[in-house]
Amino acid sequence: MLSENDYKKLTDPESVALVGVTSRSGKGSNNPLEVMLEWGYRGKIYPVNPKGGTILGHQAYTSLLDVPEIPDVAVICAPRDAVPELFDQCCTKKVKLVIIVAQGFFDGDERGKSMQKEILKAADKHGVRILGPNTLGVVNNFNRFCTSFMRFMNPTAATGILCQSGVSVVGAPQIFSGIGLLIDTGNTTDIEFSELLGHIVRDPRLKVINLHMESLRDGPQFMRAARDAVALKPVIVYKTGASPDGAITASSHTGALAGEDRVFDTAFKQCGLLRVEDVEEMIDLNKVFTTFNGIKGNRVGVVSISGGAAIIAVDACSRYGLEIAKMSGSTEDQLSELFPAWAHCNNPVDMWPAGMFHGYHNSYRRILEAFMEDPQMDAVICITGSFLDKEGDFLDTTELIREIAGKYPEKPVVAWTYGQRFQDYAREFEKENNVLYFYSIDRAARALSALYRYHHIIKKKDYRPVSTPLNPGQAQAGKILAGKSAGNLSQTDVFRLLESYGIPVARWGKAENIEEAVSLAEKVGYPVAMKVLSPDIIHKSDAGGVRLNIGNARQLEEAFTEMRREIENKQNGARLDGVIIQEHLDKGTELILGCKRDPQFGPVLAFGAGGVFTEVMDDISLRVPPLSEEELTEMIEETKISKILAGARGATAVNLDVLTGCLTKFAQLVLANPAISEMDINPLLAYADRVVALDARITLDR
Amino acid sequence: MLSENDYKKLTDPESVALVGVTSRSGKGSNNPLEVMLEWGYRGKIYPVNPKGGTILGHQAYTSLLDVPEIPDVAVICAPRDAVPELFDQCCTKKVKLVIIVAQGFFDGDERGKSMQKEILKAADKHGVRILGPNTLGVVNNFNRFCTSFMRFMNPTAATGILCQSGVSVVGAPQIFSGIGLLIDTGNTTDIEFSELLGHIVRDPRLKVINLHMESLRDGPQFMRAARDAVALKPVIVYKTGASPDGAITASSHTGALAGEDRVFDTAFKQCGLLRVEDVEEMIDLNKVFTTFNGIKGNRVGVVSISGGAAIIAVDACSRYGLEIAKMSGSTEDQLSELFPAWAHCNNPVDMWPAGMFHGYHNSYRRILEAFMEDPQMDAVICITGSFLDKEGDFLDTTELIREIAGKYPEKPVVAWTYGQRFQDYAREFEKENNVLYFYSIDRAARALSALYRYHHIIKKKDYRPVSTPLNPGQAQAGKILAGKSAGNLSQTDVFRLLESYGIPVARWGKAENIEEAVSLAEKVGYPVAMKVLSPDIIHKSDAGGVRLNIGNARQLEEAFTEMRREIENKQNGARLDGVIIQEHLDKGTELILGCKRDPQFGPVLAFGAGGVFTEVMDDISLRVPPLSEEELTEMIEETKISKILAGARGATAVNLDVLTGCLTKFAQLVLANPAISEMDINPLLAYADRVVALDARITLDR
């Protein structure tokens, strides 16, 4: 982990060496020294350039080794091929923090990758930490420290930013409405989000933290850091690079359904991160979190110049989970006298009729003041027009709204204005930082909703991870798995493994031929089910390898013969090891419990509707374990099938404790046995007071 | 229907009377004469004001009757209470088209509603057509005819607009990037969208038509007009006022699932309308349709200054159904020499490494030109920076992009730029109307996708409605329904009705007591199902009124007694008319066929996953009949359960002709029998080559 001292050196260094900096300056030179001077960094700067001389008034050293002190940070700003040698100089000089700007390493060809590996090896040996490569580095707008070689503007805002791409650096003045402190980890070969997050979130100058994430090395480590962070401040995450093709080769239902982006999404939700879908949502959420300190609830008042726009506001609030406030009696009394007898005075208020009778400004003022005083309203959306140039517009209430909003700093006021001059009005609205303008009412509602979600749901929830005790059956399970080769575990071993963990399996036995099958069925008791045993068949029913509700020995014999024939047709050459004979069970609710091992997050659990509809209905919830009781319950309730489990449509309600108990054992099993790469129990049959696994499959890791 | 002549009078009148116009002018006077003069309308204007005199240099008549000719249009611009008398003057004067501006009629109190009814009665008698009330009227920017009393700007664009609220009128310069021709139908008590659409879509000056809809009187009439319109031009619809509470009181599954907004959504899709979700999507779609004449396909090239932004573009294209184009071999050859050996030259192109070696402008130009020449690319997204003021920015490629785009008018070029100065760059991009700037890459992709959808899917599809022949069973069905009172039709009548239309029902009979039940079961053949018959029980399984798989007479007797007891517990007092005994059927795929009668659209059909999961899974597709074969197939394929019907997961595939045949009969039944207000066949069991109704319910209208 990056120590606090190292973090401080990285973001607020007293001295910095620019190793390999160009001697050119001006347009197109991409000279980071020039940018640093323009920004006004006040620490010591040591340019290093083999030609020496003077660069922009600063003496240049021909080697880093000649620099008269050990700089806090070295920025290697030379092209790729010069990097290894310059990095060696950093190691020799005992610089502890090195920013590598160049592209072409892990993001380039084979040569770049091997250069990168050599550098990492040297870093490890000398205790050097690397930011990058392929990064613009650090931008700290509080001390004007900026390592970017690209010039851009530097408005200060209370936003912290961790990113992996230059678009979030030089685009920051737009995307985050400015920069407080930004760190670009580039290819992220060493220093990563997880270790930076705990530091940046504790910076008292920042009100909101942003993550623009392209990839992640260690999911669980990141989740720990994120859970810790959201207790302190809102953390917005923009994850790009969703790859819908990622899950195509999965061998299990869970593998097929739990695609890469869906797992990220689950992990983000589990940590209380606010995930945004695009750049504009990131812009809006940064505005709302840097402007407002909170919101008391989700009840919204709407003051509109237009009835049609008021309807849009109702739709928008409903879409984003806000309530249209019911105005209090005293507000209603105060306002009704403003309106003609035929007009309703409800929230949302179409204030036009009042304006016609009592003057537009006067009416707008009285309504908005009443709303701000009304304890039933937690925020107000103001809708106005921008039909004309401001000077000529007698309907311009921008200043009035700003003035009233300023008196109630605890109640967010947001605005939408429509008309050709909306951009001018937008600027006016935001002039004193107490009203926010949004480009649409939907975006205003979305931003208020995020404010509500953070302050009333996320910040109040306990996101601390729980620990999962070892299941007493692990010794037995370990024996079953010992020495097993990669690939599909045999059906008999799968059942034994479940049973070792206390997960009930429908009564079963193995038979290698017709005779054994008949004698086994007598013991199990008719009717029985028969399923083929084959290391080559994963989806048994697809291959014709399942027969249900077999009533007697004669039917069993026929079914045995016919099943062989069908499998030969459908999957010729599949090895057949016999059959499983299993008790027939009354129809319960078919569920799936699944697990896949994700490259970033490790085991990911799936729960949902099972049986033949599993993939078709895709009614699945995911979670990264370990999970608290509360999270297990949420996981179940997130699915549609949970309504059936709760007794909807005349179904028998299922005891949820039994189900969460089974989920817990399942989680224990996959956490304690990393060899399991994919696993489905499908169907798991749920009855009023028990659950039973009817079928299951397990794939072991290669 | 509004005749072409009347439409022309309404939108392009030679003379207009402003009846009840105020004599005040200037700020806050809301004088439509002032606005009309400001806009420069060149027809004859007759102000009418009881005080006479001169208004803004125009002689005012004390009564409309004194005006020296019959004006093409009269605009009544007096407050509500003065309207009836002024409307009488219009009738006496034989004005054929009257615009009523005032609020407070159907949108107001009881008095307003009855005034409105009187006016409509008089209009009917005198053959007068009314636009409004509660409207700003007509804005025609081609002849500068504008009846709005609110002042706003008037940039001209090739957009046609039909709306029901002032927000779309005075907001039009922003929302539609200007106005070509706009008609605000206000409360829409007479002239409505359906009759205006056919006229406005044929105006050669307009490239795109917008509907901002709050309500609709006659759904089928609107659908006919919309289907006709989309064959000519893209029609965008923004429907506001979705009421999620609308469906709560429904008595059937279909009623519960087919909420008001979902029915609108279905109808819009069936007509090929492009529905937008918010104001910003409307802004974007208007820009794209007024700027580009088409797009050849959905394969997109991306030229980006940033690798991170290129990743965002891939996500955005995937989200909106666009393909990232594979560049042709010759493009690859041309471009690879621009890049250093370690860099990949793929689409999307991160052009930065090329820029470092071959100059930024030169590289951007060569890449973009190659993409524009590449026949594998149908559109190009350009991503640039706006980090600095344009004058100081050596990375500014705005002009270069505009210049190249101008040479290839058939290939849309859209742009996103990020940085604090994005608005300045945006204006520059759009200066010559050949490049469009979007506020995010997602919005750029969404707009291109709409362009593709219209030109490649909607315009090429045959949306003409089909006719549905009468089912030969209608005579019999009519007899069954004759004289039936409102409420639930008895189970036996429901089954007979289905059978009369040729919809197969599982073999059944009615029994009034245990003895009859046993003797009936002998005839039907064990195992059988038993279902309670009661006019008071709608959801039989919820009430405990269903027993399945009864194997013999003893079980039947027990089940009969126990069922009575359970129903007494669950729904005490329900009248019991006996039971239905029905054949036991092997498990097929459970489907639902449903219908609800929508107040706007009439019968709406539902198809999807049936059984106990119907409402929980909500896997339903809706359609407004009549339907072509193609639409029936689409309706089935839209559901998830259709994958099971197609044979997924080892299921037996179902013959789709049999299913569409059954759907056709179902559609015939509800179309020919308007007394049916809600109906479910659930489950309809589907097998390889037949479908069978196992249960069904019908509610007749009150």
TrEMBL record, chains A, B:
Ranges in a coiled coil: none
GO terms of molecular function: acetate-CoA ligase (ADP-forming) activity; ATP binding; metal ion binding
Domain ATP-grasp residue range list: 495-531
InterPro entries documented for this protein: Acyl-CoA_Synth/Transferase, ATP-grasp, ATP_grasp_subdomain_1, CoA-bd, Ligase_CoA_dom, NAD(P)-bd_dom_sf, Succ_CoA_lig_flav_dom, Succinyl-CoA_synth-like
PROSITE patterns to which the protein is assigned, alphabetical: ATP_GRASP
Keywords annotated in UniProt: ATP-binding, Ligase, Nucleotide-binding
Keyword Transmembrane: no
Signal peptide: none
Domain of life: Bacteria
Family to which this protein belongs: In the N-terminal section; belongs to the acetate CoA ligase alpha subunit family.
Protein name in UniProt: Acetate--CoA ligase family protein
Species of provenance: Pelotomaculum isophthalicicum JI
